[in-house]
Amino acid sequence: MPSSESFEDLLKQFDQSHPAAKGAEPKVGDTVSGTLVSIGDDYAFIDLGGKTEGRMEAAVLRNAEGELTAAVGDRVEAAVTGKDPDTGTLLLGTQHGHKYHGLEEVRQAYSQGLPVQGQVTGAVKGGVEVQVAGMRAFCPASQVDIRFVEDLSEYVGQRLDFRVTKIEGGRRPNLVVSRRALLEEEQRLRAEQTRAQLQEGVVLSGTVTSLKDYGAFVDIGGIEGMIHVSQLAYGHVKHPSEVLRVGQPVEVSVLRIEPNPDGKSRERVALSIRALAQDPWSDIEQHFPVGARVQGSVSRLQPFGAFVELAPGVDGLIHISELGAGRRLNHPSEVLSLGQAVEATVLAVDLERRRISLTLDADKASSEIPDASRYAPTKGADAAAAQDATGGKTQERPMGSFGALLQESLNKRR
Question: Can you give the pTM of this predicted structure?
Answer without folding.
Answer: 0.48
